[in-house]
Design brief:
Layout lengths: L2 H4 L3 H10 L6 H13 L3 E5 L5 H11 L3 E6 L6 H4 L1 E3 L1 H10 L7 H15 L5 E3 L1 H7 L5 E6 L6 H13 L1 E4 L3 E4 L5 E6 L7 H5 L2 E5 L4 H11 L5 H15 L13 H13 L7 H6 L1 H4 L3 H9 L1 H5 L1
Parallel strand pairs: 1-8, 1-9, 2-5, 5-8
Antiparallel strand pairs: 3-4, 6-7
Helix pairs in contact: 2-3, 11-12, 11-13, 12-13
């Protein structure tokens, strides 16, 4: 399906994402549709593993755009997100230039020329934000992943980009988007984001899928799994996330873990879930020892 066809309606977008292996429920598809049509950034919040990052990847394929990813972390600096100058190349260029005259007036007049010589496009190292703004048609999909891991000054730095799709470079000037980038921000809600960031974005909370959708995802991603095994995987994971058991675990398995678990079970030629099979593959579904021990202590009830 063409990008224009995918944007014909919400149902068309759902179908286009499904063709790329991403099964989006209608509320999520509506948020994406509006973000694309209104050319607004979309902020996706939710627990790890609910498909936020995968949505950006699938959307890039649907819209036939290059995907750029900015992985956020504590202490990240602006130069890692926006740009930096190639100082070594600038220094070599300065050394190769003719020496300025000893006359003070001429030296002062030559200063702007020196700045023009140093701050050239060829010395500019573009990072994801600047790459997204400079991307020619059809444009880029920019994923600002786990923005909640960055600190508050970095959030303030993002405001100009999120609000106006432009950035200001002191030595260069203002750079506006050639083609408006599709911008997806994700957050695992490890901390609250500033209201100024949220105001510039459309918002959608992503939760774990219900059992029926999880089953459809497992069957689509792991077609080698038998229908019975895929159903048992979806039922087991749904029970782990249910109100009766969720509070016992530190971190619930996400969609990625469900799919990986199904692949592991197929690799082991498992036909049905039983206690030894679940215990042996617990490290695929859970990533913390306490959760593995909790799983073992509740295994009979989960398998019932």
């Amino acid at each position: 399906m063409s990008p224009a066809g995918a944007l014909a309606s919400i149902d068309a977008l759902v179908a286009a994402l499904a063709q790329e292996g991403y099964l989006a429920e209608r509320r999520l598809a509506t948020a994406v549709f509006l973000a694309l049509r209104l050319e607004r950034p979309l902020l996706l919040e939710g627990a790890p593993g609910v498909g936020k990052t995968e949505l950006a990847k699938a959307l890039a394929r649907v819209m036939q755009r290059q995907m750029l990813r900015l992985q956020c972390y504590d202490g990240m600096e602006q130069r890692e997100a926006l740009y930096e100058w190639n100082h070594a190349a600038q220094l070599l260029h300065l050394r190769a230039m003719p020496s300025p005259t000893e006359n003070a007036t001429d030296t002062a007049a030559a200063t702007p020329n020196l700045e023009q010589a140093v701050y050239q496009d060829r010395f500019l190292i573009r990072r994801p934000l600047l790459q997204a703004l400079d991307m020619p048609a059809p444009g880029a999909v920019l994923l600002i992943d786990e923005v909640d891991r960055a600190d508050e000054p970095f959030e303030a730095f993002l405001l100009e980009y999120l609000g106006e799709y432009q950035i200001s470079i002191p030595e260069w000037g203002t750079v506006k988007a050639t083609v408006t980038p599709i911008t997806i921000l994700t957050s695992n809600r490890t901390r609250d984001l500033h209201d100024a960031v949220k105001r510039r974005c459309l918002f959608h909370w992503m939760d774990y899928p219900d059992q029926a959708r999880e089953l459809a995802i497992v069957r689509a991603q792991v077609p080698q799994a038998s229908e019975a095994l895929a159903l048992q995987v979806a039922e087991f994971v749904a029970k782990v996330r249910s109100a009766a058991f969720a509070s016992h675990f530190e971190r619930l398995p996400g969609i990625a873990e469900s799919v990986e678990w199904a692949r592991a079970l197929v690799m082991l030629q498992a036909q049905n879930l039983d206690a030894p099979c679940v215990v042996d593959t617990a490290g695929v579904l859970f990533k913390q020892q306490d959760d593995v021990l909790t799983l073992q202590s509740h295994l009979d009830a989960l398998l019932a």
